[in-house]
Amino acid sequence: MELSKERPTQLTEIPVNQADFEDLFLADTLSWGEQVEQAVNHILMACQALMDKRFVMMKNKRVWYDRDVAALYPKLDQVAMPYCKSTVPSLEIYQAGEGFDTKENVLHVDDITFHLATPQEAATTFHQGNGNPYVAGNGVITNYAEDNYSDTVFIADDYYYNNSYLRYHGTNGYSDTYSRYSSRLAMLMIMIAWLDGKDSQGLSPARTLHAWLQHGLIPDGLEPADEPAYVRFLEEYQKIDNYLDWDSQDDYVFFRKDAFVQAVGKGEFRQTVFQRRFDLAGIIEDCRQGTMQYTSTLSFLREELLNWDYRRANLEPYADSVLSDINIGHWELFEAPEENAISVVPSGQVWTARPPQLDVVASGTCAIDFGTKSTVVVCRNQEARLLRVGTGDYTKAAKKEDYENPTVIELRDLTSFEQAYQQRPGRPFTTWEEITVSHQAESALLQEDIDSSVYYAVFSELKQWAHEKDRRLLLKDRKGVVWKLDPYLTLADDAFDPIEIYAYYLGLYINNMRHGIYLDYILSFPVNYDLAVRKKLLQSFERGLKKSLPSAILADEDLMKRFRVYAGASEPAAYAAAALKAYGLEPKETGDMTAYGVFDFGGGTTDFDFGIEKLSANPRRCKFELHQFGRGGDPYLGGENILNHLAFDVYCANLDTMRKESIPIALPHGCTAPAGTETLILADREATQISFMNRKSLAEALRPLWEGKSEAAENLKDNQLNLSLFVDTSRTEKEANQNRKNVNLTIDTDHLKDVIRSLISRGVTNFFQAWQEAFKNREEMPDHIHIFLAGNSCRSPIVKELFDEQIKAKEEDISAHSDGKQAEGLFILHLPLGMEEGEADPNEELDRKLTGKTGVAFGLLRSRKGGKDVKIINANVDASGEALFPYFLGDIDIEGHFHVRIGKQVPYQSWAAFCYADEEDFEIYYTSEPQAIENQMPPEAVKHVNCRIEADDVSDADDTMIYIRKVNPDTIEYAVGTEGDFSQEDCVKQKHIIRQTLR
């Protein structure tokens, strides 16, 4: 059938690739097995209330069941039971109804054979006071015979005593014999049908149910809603009994699904009652002959189509109307296989193929703020709206947290994922059970019963890995397979790339049959990312986002000309663009300007950005120009890093307990381990998965304190914390599966708050130093500087307190040195978007709400290509787009402080004198912190690298020095010579130039 790109098409037949059909068929068979397992366990649960009783009557047969001996007895009121008299050594049958074999002493009732019970069985069941339905409280066995018989005694299989005496038993537990020559006493013969052999101690509930089913029994007393299901299962279970595991120790019946699916795939059910249901080869042949009309097969195809995105990305299944409505239709049906296809005929049903071209959002743009802790996606069509990722149930009410999607992936079965991912150019048949992302992936590490091995399966440092150029990692999925991860910049295009996979999942949530298809994407970056890293990130996102598109779109050359992923404004500049508009601070007239500084305090890093917004000189080109000319930050100051500091502080405060219990921890960046803790406090290179897990557990327990939540007081009540941590089993006698220990820890919350304040205070101090450097030589000096607090970590009240203190001190200092001009009001502080007093709008939709976190994505859209709204003019990069060199280079002065010798104003490729060349070895100290310009930082607060020059270059001459030039944001080169040497290119080429990376 010819499919049109301009409209949906109703199908008279559905072409399906045979391999896909077989996979779907077997997947449906597996699903059927899962349904069987659920059904039998539902029946087991329904029967367990009856099994809790000692005696159970059967509804369809004249028998009853005793739980304690796992056996059946005939109903005395419905079966003519045999009675006997003494004729030793044989029995003289006094009464025997139909079904009794006098030669074998067996009774046949409703296709069940009964034998004489053992003395133990008979005495256990027919005992006064145990609830036996046929034994009264005084021990009398109810007499249903026509003639009277002894009503308190009975015969078991030990009746033969000797030639002269017969043994009998009483309901009160006694036993005795009487002579064949005494009065001829009539006694009930206890007839039993064993379900577990003689003298059983009882069966598990699962095996009891199996025994009932084997004997075709329907218990009396099932709930009216449960009995029909029991009866149906009774009629069918024998067909699959070989695949049911009734011997589980968990009172649960397992269906051996994999074995069943394997048997179906081999054609073992072709000649069985399942022929029409599970004859795969026969169904395929009928499809090829055009005679396939099996409703069951069409049903699973239909279900699979509606659940594709549920399986791929945990998105809510589509409504049936996607297939049945002739004006809607399904993308997958449009992409018919070209080879080895079979045709399924949807007899009497409507199946509609939809060209995905119809769902391309022509004017759509997606802005992605790829964050260290969480990622925000805003899609713009007629209006900009936030998108939920990893929470695919759209029937649930949205929460603010839904739109801040954790930058986390969880590797469950990476081998299977990779195989599926590579088999199709677009929308491959991957499953959510192989890799999860976002909220669900993040929650995997927070489960109380999680095993420490899962730590390496959950990767939450995607952005850090991308930025740290030499970082190599080993990951391990839930299947135990280890995956090597090379440094990001050296990663091959065909290698496993977690960032590409994360982008793929973002794409699945953006591009689907609910939201449509977007072809235009903007990505934000931190202010200090190298050009090479930015380019690589764009490539990863491009590959991942393309993979989320239908193959028909990828094959459409005209449409794909419009596909692009490009770099937008830096994260703080994008936030400034959003905040300036939201707070009504944009200039109104030509010549006006608004100066800003952004303190972007996120989960992993803190970025500063400074600039001025003006009205555009040519409104036809854009409305506003945003000029960036200053930046800075702290790559290790973030909310999650602060939590790690707190965790480490608590660990050290309880070091005796940790040492006693052999509980290790990973050392956070910027912390120093106490002496004598080498085997407990492990640096990154030595840190184990349990040391990371312990740090994570401690950090999560302290999160309420950092976030200022009310439950902090309850969780840390009386400055005590009880926590389950992992023990280093290599140093204990504990088994690996018993490697947790509950410990009581002492918590000094006041001290921890001081730690928080100290860490943030350093960041605030650096912010004002960076402001001073940025505006130092500006001709345009504004009357006010608007400080925008951004990022979720700025929600901490401590941030505002410290800024208020610093603003007051700065304004007082400026006023004191400005010839009487008062600087009060120079700095105007703005809380993160969404926190300003009086700003909250109760009617505002959550997916349109600007916050300290979502503002970056909304700001990206303002500066999008073609938007003509805000044009970013970035002086923080050079002409090639490379980020400026971030470090101050220097040495340690005579007073023991870091002294800047080469500042940030020296451009790339410019040689600058650093130190004398009088020794082979020299040290370069460096830092990106703006407070370095005051030359007061102690050596331990900055980094350093040891360098060496050639022995032939060593000189005591006063004019011969070591010169340094900046090559890229983390690399320098150095050589020895005079000032004149480095002013001539020919002389430079003759030098021994040595390259050094700064980390």
Task: Lay out the secondary structure.
Elements: E1 9-11, E2 14-17, H1 18-51, E3 55-57, E4 63-66, E5 71-74, E6 83-87, E7 90-95, E8 100-101, E9 106-109, E10 112-116, H2 119-125, E11 153-155, E12 165-170, E13 175-179, E14 187-189, E15 191-194, H3 205-214, H4 227-236, E16 244-245, E17 254-255, H5 257-265, H6 275-278, H7 280-289, H8 295-306, H9 308-313, H10 321-324, H11 331-334, E18 341-344, E19 351-353, E20 365-369, E21 374-380, E22 384-386, E23 405-406, E24 409-411, H12 414-422, E25 435-437, H13 438-443, E26 458-459, H14 462-467, E27 473-476, E28 482-485, H15 498-510, E29 520-525, H16 531-547, H17 551-554, H18 557-560, E30 564-570, H19 571-582, E31 593-601, E32 606-615, E33 624-634, H20 639-653, H21 655-661, E34 665-666, E35 681-682, H22 689-707, H23 711-715, E36 720-726, E37 740-746, H24 749-775, E38 785-790, H25 797-816, E39 827-830, H26 855-862, E40 870-874, E41 888-892, E42 898-902, E43 912-916, E44 921-927, E45 943-948, E46 961-968, E47 971-977, H27 985-989, E48 994-997
Parallel strand pairs: 11-14, 20-29, 29-30, 31-38, 33-40, 34-35, 38-39
Antiparallel strand pairs: 1-19, 2-18, 3-4, 4-5, 5-15, 6-7, 6-14, 8-9, 9-10, 10-15, 11-12, 12-13, 16-17, 20-21, 21-22, 21-23, 24-25, 24-26, 27-28, 31-32, 32-33, 36-37, 41-42, 41-44, 43-46, 44-45, 46-47, 47-48
Helix pairs in contact: 1-3, 1-5, 1-8, 15-16, 19-26, 20-22, 20-24, 24-25
